[in-house]
Amino acid sequence: QVQLVESGGGSVQAGGSLTLSCTVFGYTDSDNCVGWFRQAPGKEQQGVGQIQTGVGSVYYADFEKDRFTISQDSAKNTVHLQMNMLKPEDTAMYYCAFQYGSCRALRPSFFRYWGPGTQVTVSS
Fold first, then answer.
1. What share of the chain in percent tops pLDDT 70?
2. Burial tier of 8 (Cβ tally within 10 Å: 0-12, 13-18, 19+)
3. CA distances from 62 to 59, 105, 106 (A)
4. What is the mean pLDDT of residues 2-28?
5. If I label 64, which of 15, 25, 49, 106 is the partner at 20 to 30 A Cα–Cα?
6. C-alpha torsion sign, points 117, 61, 43, 111
7. Integer Cα distance of 10 and 14 in angstroms
8. How far apart are CA 94 and CA 10, in angstroms?
């Protein structure tokens, strides 16, 4: 059974940085898709980006291409989301998600396995 655990959330002032981590356990193949999503109170879940773990290729949603970076530490089965120049509107619960095989559209419905989420709060 695949399990995911996010870490690294917290509170930060606008303009600051945070790095979230997502450690994946229990998967059986080496080339899979790991995505990051976020959900602010009262809003729909929003895709942040995703990485194809076998080759390391990354796709970002348009809104944060210049501020967010997704990377992986294959030895630790961990994917990171580095967030710079944070804004109050980045405040949300951040989730990582896993799906066997190739990445497709950055949509929540594509991913079968989800972590519990980690809260990011950005104050002005």
1. 99
2. middle
3. 9, 13, 11
4. 96
5. 25
6. negative
7. 13
8. 11
Could you give the angle at the alpha carbon of 103 between the alpha carbons of 25 and 108, nearest 5°?
75
Output DSSP code: residue 85: S
How large is the average pLDDT for residues 30-40? 95
Task: Read off the pLDDT of residues 59-80 as tens digits, 9 standing for 90 and up.
Answer: 999 876 789 999 999 887 999 9
The amino acid that residue 22 corresponds to is C
- Kindly indicate the confidence band of residue 29, based on its pLDDT and cuts at 50, 70 and 90: confident
What phi, psi does 61 have (nearest 5°)? Answer: -65, 150
Pairing of β 92-100 and β 68-73: unpaired
Q: How far is it, in rounded angstroms, from Cα 98 to Cα 33?
A: 6
Amino acid at 53: T
Specify the pairing of strand 118-123 against strand 10-13.
parallel
Per-residue model confidence (pLDDT) at position 28:
84
